[in-house]
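HOLO CASE FILE
Compound: phenylalanine
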Amino acid sequence: MPYTVPKLTDYSPAALASAADECIAACQSESAEVRSDGDLKIFRDRWMARKNGVLTQINDLWLKGAPKEAKREAGMRVNELKTRITELVEGTQVSADAGSLGPACVDISLPGIRRPVGAEHPVVKTANEIVAVFQKLGYSVAEGPVVETDYYNFEALNFPPNHPARDTQDTLFIAGQQSKPQRERLLLRTHTSPVQIRTMEKMRPPIRIVIPGTVHRNDPPDASHSPMFHQIEGLAVDTNITFGDLKGTLDHAMKALFGSSVKTHFRPSFFPFTEPSAELYVTCFICGGSGKREGNSPCRPCKQTGWIEVLGCGMVDPNVFEFVKDNGYDPKKVSGFAFGMGVDRLALLKYGVDDLQYFFQGDVRFLQQFG
Ligand code: PHE
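Model generated. C-alpha cells follow.
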C-alpha cells in the first residue's frame, strides 16, 4: 500500500512524533525502490511537488487543521519533517536491484570520467620555493593578520607621524574608525613587516623567520600593479648579527633561487624600520646582465640595465627593538636584519608573464600552463 497522508486528530507530541516516523519510513522504502531516471522523477514529484506533493498535503492536513494550542508544536514538527524528507529525496539515487547487479552492468567501452587535477598557482609555487630556501637555512615560518592595526603596520615600525606611506594614497583603511585612537585604527596591511613586531612580541631572541602573506595597497590594477599582492618578509635577530650576515644570506638565497651564476648588488635605500637600508639587485636572468637580447634588441624586464631589483632590506632599526625591548630585544644587546620581497613580481619574471593581472583573473586556460 503506498503511503497516504493521514488526518490527525491527536496533536500530542507523541502522536505527532509517531506520524512523522511513519512518514519518514514510507519515504525511505519508496526511495529504495527507485530503479530508473523515470522512477526518480515520479518519486520526487510525489513527495516534493508544490501542487499536491506529500509535503504540501502534510502542510495542509496537519498544520492548517491543528487546534490553536497545538499550532506551535505542530509547526516545529512539520518543519523538522520537511527537512528530513527533503534530504532523503535529494539524496535518492537510481539504484540497481540485486538481480541486475554484477559485471553485466559495467560497460568498459563507455568513456571515462575526467577528474581535473589541480596544481599550485604560480604565485603560491614561487612563494613556496622562496620559503623552502630559507627553511633550509634554519628559518621557520610565521604568519599574521591581513587586517592590521595602525600600530603594527606603522607606529611600531618607526614610521614618523606624517610619513608619506601612511597617506591614504597608499593605504586602504577600514571605514568608520575615526573615533578610535590612531594606533588602534584598522587597515589592510601594506606590507608583511608588521609580523616582525608580532613575532618578536611572542618569541624571545634568537629568531630566524620568514613571513609569507597577502598585502594591499590602493593601486589601480594594471600590467605591473595590483591592489592585492604577495610578499615574503624575513627577520633574523641574535647577538652580533652584522650587515655581512645580511649580504651573505641574501646572496646565497638569490643563487639558490635563480641559479649559481647570478650576481647580487646592494644599493643604499631608505625604510623607517631598517638602518642602514638597501635594495638588492640581481643580474637580469633574462639577458644575463648584458641589457641586450638576441639580435642586440633591448632587454625589457631590466630596462637594459642588466640588473633587476628584487627586494628591500636592512639592519633592524634600534627604534624598532625599543617597542619589544621587554621581551629580550634590548637594542644594546641584540642586532638583526630584515628583508621583504614581492612574490608576484618575481613570479612574473620567472615565468616570463607580461601582465600581472593574469595571476588574479582565475582563467583556467592561463593557469593550466603551470599544471
Ligand atoms: N616592507 C618593505 C616594503 O614593503 C620591504 C622591507 C622589508 C624593507 C624589510 C626592509 C626590511 O617595501
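CASE NOTES: The pocket of phenylalanine is lined by residues 191, 193, 233, 271, 274, 312-314, 338-340 (CB under 6 Å). The mean pLDDT is 91.
CLOSED: yes
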